[in-house]
Amino acid sequence: MDFLQPTTWAEALSMKAAHPEALPIAGGTDVMVEINFDRHRPAAFLDLTRIAELAEWGQEGDHLRIGAGVTYTRLIDELGDRLPGLAMASRTVGSPQIRNRGTVGGNLGSASPAGDAHPPLLASGAIVELASTAGIRRLPANEFFVGPKRSAMRKDELIRAFLVEPAPGPQQFSKVGTRNAMVIAVCSFALSIDPARRHVGTGIGSAAPTPVTAPEAERFLEGVLGESDLWQKPAPVADSALVRFGELVAAAARPIDDVRGTAAYRRHALRVLTARALERTMAE
Ligand SMILES: Cc1cc2nc3c(=O)[nH]c(=O)nc-3n(C[C@H](O)[C@H](O)[C@H](O)COP(=O)(O)OP(=O)(O)OC[C@H]3O[C@@H](n4cnc5c(N)ncnc54)[C@H](O)[C@@H]3O)c2cc1C
Question: Which residues line ligand 1 (CB under 6 A)?
């Protein structure tokens, strides 16, 4: 197979335009599994690891703009204070070796419903930046995922970066797996609270054909926090509100039975994760 190795972003976009069938490879932690098991044999690889700007991050207005090639280890070390929800999720990814190579760009590229970066990106209203020789387009994360392992990225496009605001308030992420580490999520949940804008964000992983949000649960919790004036003076929320919030999150999921768990267990686990995330958030 052909191995294309651009050294600049412009060269990578031209190569992708000329070879739309070429499979991008960043950390390779998803791609090499597919190759090793012979599930996929692309005509060509497009190696993105030599493009320095993909591994950079910086400020753009109110947002952080983070290159698709920034690894989980660097996200935790360099951005953990500004993006605590994404850092919590990153700490649960694979092992140190996987976190040293794996990237959020690769997680988005695979678009797995179980990708651990996706719930915190959804909860914090992140934007995905896609590019081709035709130009740049920016999509809200909740428009990026269109089906199981399918995204809105076109064949001639690459993921350049994602944009996200530094956490405006408390954020949480939790995940249930069949063991404590090196595990694909049975389900996961992310919560992000913006006290100044009085906004709640959610993200659910591994419990629907794509990562999804729970808008009804978000509006319900905004109401609860507003009624009791808890936006600026956090205090425990009533048990009845914890239960209702969990029910609304579980109702937003569309889980299936599979080797990792049943649909019923996933809904139950989501109710538990949700209540726990909310308790921890209010304690913060
Ligand atoms: C042992 C092991 C444990 C793992 N544990 C977890 C886990 O706990 N949680 C989790 O979410 N994942 C896990 N994974 C999966 C994987 O590590 C992640 O999905 C990771 O984020 C992939 O990043 P990568 O840079 O290695 O992507 P790659 O494997 O290089 O690429 C993944 C996909 O994205 C595409 N792609 C990569 N970069 C771009 C780009 N810039 N533009 C367009 N397309 C691009 C590739 O073509 C490919 O389709 C695990 C994998 C292994 C092998």
Answer: 23-31, 33, 48, 68, 92-94, 98, 101-103, 105-107, 109-110, 115-116, 158-159, 182
* pTM of the predicted model as reported, rounded to 2 decimal places: 0.98
Distance 110 CA to ligand 1 centre (A): 6
| Nearest atom of ligand 1 to the alpha carbon of 94 | 5
The pLDDT tens digits for 104-153 are 999 999 999 999 999 999 999 999 999 999 999 999 999 999 999 999 99
Residues contacting 136, CB < 8 A, separation 6+: 129, 130, 160
Specify which residues 173 forms β-bridges with: 190
The answer to whether the CB of 72 falls within 8 A of the CB of 104 is: yes
Testing ligand 1's pocket by substitution, the residue of 25, 72, 122 carrying the most ligand atoms inside 8 A of its CB is: 25
| High-pLDDT (> 70) share of the chain, % | 100
Q: Is the confidence at residue 161, as pLDDT, over 90? A: yes
Instruction: Write out the chain in H/E/C secondary structure.
Output: CEEECCCCHHHHHHHHHHCCCCEEECCCCCHHHHHHCCCCCCCEEEECCCCHHHHCEEEECCEEEEECCCEHHHHHHHHCCCCHHHHHHHHCCCCHHHHHHCEHHHHHHHCCCCCCCHHHHHHCCCEEEEEECCEEEEEEHHHHEEECCEECCCCCCEEEEEEECCCCCCEEEEEECCCCCCCCCCEEEEEEEECCCCEEEEEEECCCCCCECCHHHHHHHHHHHHHCCCCCCCCCCCHHHHHHHHHHHHHHCCCCCECCECHHHHHHHHHHHHHHHHHHHHHC
The number of residues making up the chain comes to 284
Of 250 and 284, the one with more pLDDT:
250
